[in-house]
Specification:
- It is built from 15 helices and 8 strands.
- It is mainly alpha-helical.
- Helix 4 crosses helix 6.
- The relative contact order is 0.09.
- The protein has 2 domains: 204 residues; 185 residues, no CATH class.
- The strands form 3 sheets. It has a 3-stranded mixed sheet, with helices on one face.
- This is Metalloprotease.
Length: 411
């Protein structure tokens, strides 16, 4: 674990020695003053005014310009569950905090800056570093933009805040949706964009917020006929300007008249319908328990994942109405994008006519579904998903940000 951690930090030193002066007016990157490995199950150390006994963590400490990591529990668990690059991910994030400290005013970070801003920037800096690896510039690591980045995003999903956390709370790191956003921005746009992240920007887009007082289900609804009716109203409203003839929703075991099917929902172009297997959708809609990771064998994801799978098949009717292909990877990307566009509409406060709205944590459920091998949210009409989870989430986010980009970007 220590050899892997030091290899990651050696790469990070090379990256920031190159990028910091290039992106921040010649400022040089100075190595950290101290690197500390400890075992949270072993003898206790005093680091950053904290006792390490039982401290399953990795962290940057500005008091002595140090990075510390738990080699006994945290790193082995991450490596076992998500692969070795998960350790590189964690150390890239912590080095991102060191970069903030070293940049000082150039990063926009002060004593008064809220934790969520610092964490979003650190996730962004980690993404920028992984782009450098993906571009083949690392001497020590390689990563594919398919399965490799999928596992990196899964790592960030694992270390998200629980749904219902207030983003303004001290120590808030962000939901998976927020953390993946930071990483993807850094991967796409580089460190200078990361340093521009500030409270105003984050307040406009952050999904992390407290549950409403009247949300007795803590963000989850049962998947039943009444809530499917509300979903249909929501989808009709979201795409009413597209000129599409709204498809009907049918519970028939997810099978089209021509015999073709994708589970647990399918679009049937021959009669403009979306056919459903309610039993399987209901399994997906069940929220996981605290000790379960969504999407594992036999474990549900949550209501929004199930609703979004239905929405993805609805968007096939939208694409068909304007003569777009339905059976290739572009169709899968457009599907994710248009599903994201519907999600943005569903964020608005519900009305009597259109009462369905998404709640805190719902977008994390979409991320969880899109990181699964058989994601329907980002699949073509035959259920073939876009290969890279990174691309699936990015397409969904593009639609969530600007629906007009869906056909322009993925034509």
């Amino acid at each position: 674990m220590d050899a892997l951690a030091l290899a990651a930090l050696a790469d990070l030193y090379e990256y920031w020695t190159e990028r910091m002066p290039a992106d921040f007016d010649g400022q040089k990157f100075t190595p950290l003053a101290r690197l500390v490995s400890y075992d949270s199950k072993g003898n206790s150390l005093k680091l950053c005014q904290t006792n390490t006994a039982g401290l399953v963590n990795a962290f940057y400490c500005s008091l002595d310009d140090s990075i510390a990591w738990d080699r006994g529990v945290l790193l082995p668990e991450l490596s076992k569950q998500f692969g070795k690059m998960s350790i590189v991910t964690v150390l890239a994030h912590e080095t991102g905090h060191a970069v903030q400290f070293k940049l000082g005013g150039r990063s926009g970070i002060t004593q008064a800056t809220k934790t969520i801003v610092k964490e979003q920037q650190a996730d962004c800096y980690a993404g920028a570093f992984f782009r450098w690896i993906a571009d083949g510039k690392s001497k020590r690591f390689q990563i594919s933009t398919g399965e490799g980045l999928n596992k990196v995003l899964a790592t960030m999903f694992f270390i998200r805040d629980p749904a219902g956390t207030d983003a303004n709370k001290q120590g808030a790191h962000g939901l998976a949706w927020d953390r993946v956003f930071g990483f993807q921005v850094g991967f796409s746009d580089g460190p200078k964009r990361c340093a521009r992240m500030d409270q105003e920007e984050i307040d406009k887009r952050i999904s992390e917020q407290k549950f409403a007082e009247d949300d007795t289900g803590r963000g989850n609804l049962p998947l039943n006929a009444e809530n499917l009716r509300k979903l249909k109203v929501s989808l009709d409203e979201a795409f009413k300007q597209s000129g599409v003839t709204p498809p009907q929703l049918k519970d028939n075991g997810s099978r089209c008249p021509n015999g073709k099917a994708t589970e647990p929902a399918a679009f049937c172009p021959e009669d403009n319908s979306v056919v459903l297997d309610l039993k399987k959708l209901a399994e997906i809609a069940k929220p996981p328990k605290r000790d379960q990771e969504p999407g594992e064998d036999g474990v549900g994801i949550g209501d929004f994942a199930a609703f979004a799978e239905v929405a993805s098949r609805y968007t096939m009717a939208v694409q068909k109405s304007v003569g777009l292909s339905l059976d290739d990877e572009k169709a899968g990307l457009r599907t994710a994008c248009l599903t994201g566009a519907w999600a943005r509409v569903a964020e608005k406060p519900g009305t009597q006519e259109n009462p369905l709205r998404i709640s805190p944590g719902d977008l994390d459920e979409a991320v969880a579904e899109m990181l699964m091998g058989k994601s329907l949210i980002a699949a073509d009409i035959n259920g073939n998903p876009v290969k890279a989870g990174f691309a699936r989430v990015e397409a969904f986010r593009i639609g969530h940000t600007n629906a007009k980009e869906c056909t322009a970007r993925f034509s």
